[in-house]
Amino acid sequence: MKELLDLFLTFCKIGGFTFGGGYAMLPIIQKEIVEKKRWATNDEVMDYYAISQCTPGVIAVNTATFIGYKRKGIIGSIFATFGIVFPSLIIITTIAMFFQHFQDYPIVQHALGGIRVAVAALITSTIIKMWKQSIKNWIGIILFSSSFILITFTNISPVIIIIFGGLLGAFINLNKKVDA
Amino acid sequence: MIYLLLLIEFFKIGLFAIGGGLATLPFLQELAEKYHWISSYDLINMIAISESTPGPIGINTATFVGYKTAGIIGSVLTTLGIVTPSIIIIIIIAHYYMKFSEEPIVRASLNGIRPTVIGLIAAAGFEVAKIALLNINQFIKTGVLLELLNYKAIVLFAILLYLIIKYKKHPILYIIASGIIGIILK
């Protein structure tokens, strides 16, 4: 029970401080899940994120469900999921009740302006960390650059890009017998 | 029965929207047109709020629509509806992932997927940095290149990045501090 409560509270913390899409929670996941609790490795988190991107549902929720399952099976996945959505329920219901035009308050705008800068800096440091760990050869550099370019400049779905990355990875790595 | 309908409709969104919170938006638009629970004006307002508050955007908008339509019970039901398919699908996939992730073919393809995903995350980071560090609207209006850069934000970004890499403090600390700095510096 203690471990389930820990799962719930940890994901509450993550849900309560994620500003932006699923990517925005990665720096907090890295700190809480990988470094502090050691519930998953960086590589595993990336795998979960990739799978979450390609399966139906909200990415942040899918990733939470995945980590919860790894930790404590089905019941763990339910606690982690409820953890990550709980702050949203409280915050959004409160705003819907009392602040009709929440996003128009100058103080909210200014705070968000600052928070966005922090999110950009945190993501940058997360990308540097992941790069150091997972990009080990020129194949990795090519896969990284092509996915960055395709997402930024075309409308190709991330799902297709991830599947291609996987196929290419399987083909090249198995042929070269490089198993990094 | 509005409660059951909310649960079913959001279950469907959770089941069919692939690619995260923003992928749910077309479904919500359809819902707004079909049931008139909310107007499209409400929806735009809800999306703006969902993007300005913590929590996954898809969950925030679901909670919002639920509350507007049927109060607190409604918000609980829409949230429950949208996450249930995730729980079921991810449990099945996680089961097989744990079983097969050490197989050579799975490892080889995951080795290709990881750099690809880092590229995706970098692209998302690039979009946030564009919004956070540049005054794109101002630049379009005036055409003055010097006005494109948000100097305050760029300096803050550089200082934060240095501190994050050097001191490795908790990300939440940087988020709160930057929110306060944003309010002070406007």
UniProtKB/TrEMBL annotation, chain A:
Keywords from the UniProt entry: Cell membrane, Membrane, Transmembrane, Transmembrane helix
Lineage top rank: taxon: Bacteria
Topology in the lipid bilayer: Multi-pass membrane protein
Record flagged with keyword Transcription: no
InterPro entries: CHR_Transporter (IPR052518), Chromate_transpt (IPR003370)
Membrane spanning stretches: 7-28, 48-67, 74-99, 111-131, 138-171
Location relative to the cell: Cell membrane
Pfam families (UniProt xref): Chromate_transp (PF02417)
Family: Belongs to the chromate ion transporter (CHR) (TC 2.A.51) family.
UniProt name for this protein: Chromate transporter
Species name: Defluviitalea saccharophila
Lineage: Bacteria, Bacillati, Bacillota, Clostridia, Lachnospirales
Automatic annotation (TrEMBL), chain B:
Signal peptide region: none
Highest taxon of source: Bacteria
Cell compartments where the protein resides: Cell membrane
Bilayer disposition of the protein: Multi-pass membrane protein
Stored Pfam families: Chromate_transp
Stretches that traverse the bilayer: 7-28, 72-97, 117-136, 148-165
Keyword Transmembrane in record: yes
Keywords noted in UniProt: Cell membrane, Membrane, Transmembrane, Transmembrane helix
Keyword match Transmembrane helix: yes
Chief location bin: membrane
Family statement: Belongs to the chromate ion transporter (CHR) (TC 2.A.51) family.
Protein name (record): Chromate transporter
